[in-house]
Amino acid sequence: MLDKNGIAQRIAKEVKDGYYVNLGIGIPTLVANFVREDISVEFQSENGVLGMGPFPFEGEEDADIINAGKQTITTLPGASFFDSALSFGMIRGQHVDLTILGAMEVAENGDIANWKIPGKMVKGMGGAMDLVASAENIIVAMMHTNKAGKSKLLKRCTLPLTGVGCVKKIVTNLAVLEVTPDGFKLLERAPGISTQEIERATEGNLIIEGNIPEMVL
Amino acid sequence: MIKKTVPNVEEALKGVANGMTFMLGGFGLCGIPENAIAELVKLGVKDITCISNNAGVDDFGLGLLLHNKQIKKMVSSYVGENDEFERQMLSGELEVELTPQGTLAEKCRAAQAGFPAFYTPAGYGTEVAEGKETREFDGKMYVLEPAFKADFSFVKAWKGDEAGNLIFKGTARNFNPCMCGAAKITVAEVEELLPAGSLDPNEIHIPGIFVQRIFQGEHYEKRIEQRTVRAKA
User: Would you indicate the residue range of the signal peptide (chain A) (predicted)?
Assistant: First the structure.
């Protein structure tokens, strides 16, 4: 079974040379730590920066340079700043190659819910609805089950939706799955995890064809 | 040159009244119009609607207006950092309209650019699209979103000149440029107000035509919400 860093490490392999990538808050943020150093990638943050670098050294923080999680950041050579409308123009216009975000639930038809739990304080969707509605290439990073042990890969989402039919790929602590017209297609197993364990943790339709390889991190 | 300078924040906010709709720039606490917010607190205008991506924190930014119960309605994409906000929202004192962030930005830009409405894919099939017109283009579904209408825009820039031209810094740019010229009156506060001719016309982010009043801001606190650093190797 993978931990959060393991999930991020596996997703980092999906980041290809020349990609502009938007990383959501949580596990997706960790992906930046595992991207190969011999490829050229630029990270976009929807509050208005392309070419995000690591956190600043202590004493070098700039209140005017933050990411969408409101954390202080730095920029790398080639970086640019822009306004929010242009930023979402990049996203809506499909200029960003890959979007990685977290989710509370994903359905076998690609629906995603990640912004609201009825009865709890609603903080808002931020940029998530724009990202999932527009991105061509969306990878969801999440745990396979919730804290109560219930599957987060469902036939239909039970929570209010963030977007419909948009998720293409999911990387969890147990598996890599692709969303197909027939349901979740199992592509890879996490180290030491059996297909039976993945089946038990998946409520939606799980498609297992042939021998499922173990992930290579 | 058409001069846009006003001597101080008091002059800059002349005409604000109870019940008005205001746009306020900023993302979190980054790039917020600190001086205008402080003056709105001082003036005590009530029943206002604020269009702003976030709602500040308990003791800073729009949190100051919330604390005084001056805000009737917030139009935002994310409001998670504020206990008083949560209390007022749950008790029904505060009306909240949550809008996807890109849609929020574009509703400002549409007002600025003279579009009455636009189609966006964001929110299609979700509760955000409920009651809204939808339409298919090239096999994909879109939601019709109207432009905002506001009385004042309060924006913060890094440098500005007497003509109202603005230059922003870093990610403090965010919603500020989109809100310029998107309300009946745009008020810009700047860290550095310069004589006309001091700024290179090639480097202007927002031309002065979108700004009615500009003033030299004071005492910027520029609070950091999430100070994150790495250790020196």
Answer: none
Residue B131 lies in a domain: no
Tell me, yes or no, if A162 comes closer than 8 A to chain B by beta carbon: yes
Residues 6 or more apart whose CB falls under 8 angstroms from that of A192 comprise: A1
CA within 13 Å, CB half, B163: 16
Q: How many domains does chain B have?
A: 1
Read off the tokens for B105. 């930005």
Q: Which CATH number do you get for residue B200?
A: 3.40.1080.10
Q: Please write the tens of the pLDDT for every residue from B143-196.
A: 999 999 999 999 999 999 999 999 999 999 999 999 999 999 999 999 999 999
Q: Is B194 on the interface with A (CB under 8 A)?
A: no
Question: Does B103 contact chain A (CB < 8 Å)?
Answer: yes
Here the ipTM equals 0.96
Residue A119: pLDDT band by 50, 70, 90 thresholds? confident
Whether B199 maps to a domain, the answer reads: yes
What are the DSSP calls for A165-195, one per residue? S---EEE-SSEEEEEETTEEEEEEEPTT--H
Q: Is the distance from CB of B36 to CB of B23 less than 8 angstroms? A: no
Do the Cβ atoms of B28 and A66 come within 8 Å? yes
Residue numbers in B near A130 (CB within 8 A): 100-103, 120, 122
Q: Which domains does chain A have, with CATH numbers?
A: 4-32+90-207 (3.40.1080.10)
On whether residue B126 sits in a domain, the answer given is no
Q: Which residue of A has its CA nearest to B107?
A: A85
